[in-house]
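Sequence, please.
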């Protein structure tokens, strides 16, 4: 029934409101390339992309 799925639907709406699908994809793509999302890359890392609405760099 619809009532039994209501809490799950609310959770999905809250999650999608917090993360847009593009942000989630960027972060997953970064981790799939063995990178880490950071505001600033360490001196021995290089930026290979962006994460979370381009506010962070994907560093490897």
């Amino acid at each position: 029934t619809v009532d039994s799925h209501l809490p799950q639907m609310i959770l999905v709406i809250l999650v999608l409101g917090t993360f847009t699908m593009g942000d989630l994809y960027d972060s997953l793509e970064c981790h799939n390339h063995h990178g880490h999302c950071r505001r600033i890359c360490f001196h021995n890392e290089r930026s290979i992309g962006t994460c979370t609405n381009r506010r962070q760099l994907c560093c490897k």
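The first helix runs from residue 2 to 18.
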